[in-house]
Design brief:
Blueprint: H1 3-10, H2 14-22, E1 29-30, E2 36-37, H3 40-54, H4 59-69, H5 77-120
Length: 121
C-alpha cells in the first residue's frame, strides 16, 4: 500500500512514517516508480514503534530492540533485551517520581482550596 493508505491504516501520519524510515526503524518496499510500498508487517512494526515512542522510550533504544519485538533475532539479543529492560525500568521509575511530585502538588492545591473555601464562606 502507498504511504497515504499506510498512514490511514496505522493512524500514523505520512510524515511520521517517513521519519521512522529516516531513523532506520522501518524499511518499506518501493514500487517501480520509487513510491514507498508498505506491507502489513511494516504496518504492524509501525504500531509497535508508535506504542514505544508514546511510552517515552528513546529512538536509539527502540531501534536496538525492535528486531526482538517484531520477530527478528540476532546475536546480541540478550544484551539488547537486558539494556531495554533496564531502560524501561529507569523510565518507569522517573515517571513514578514525577507522578508522586504531581500528586503532592495536587494535594497542596486541594488543601489550599479547602482552606480558601472555609475562610471565604
Amino acid at each position: 500500500m502507498k504511504i497515504g493508505e499506510a498512514s490511514r491504516v496505522s493512524g500514523v501520519s505520512a510524515r511520521s512514517l517517513r521519519h521512522y524510515e529516516d531513523e532506520g526503524l522501518i524499511v518499506p518496499g518501493r514500487f517501480d516508480n520509487g513510491f514507498r510500498d508498505y506491507c502489513q508487517s511494516t504496518i504492524d512494526r509501525v504500531l509497535v514503534i508508535r506504542s514505544l515512542l508514546e511510552s517515552g522510550l528513546p529512538v536509539r533504544l527502540i531501534r536496538d530492540v525492535l528486531p526482538q519485538l517484531t520477530g527478528g533475532h540476532d546475536a546480541g539479543a540478550d544484551a539488547v533485551c537486558g539494556e531495554f529492560l533496564h531502560e524501561v525500568e529507569s523510565y518507569r521509575d522517573r515517571l513514578a517520581a514525577r507522578i508522586a511530585h504531581l500528586s503532592e502538588q495536587q494535594a497542596a492545591l486541594d488543601a489550599y482550596l479547602r482552606q480558601a473555601r472555609r475562610t471565604g464562606s
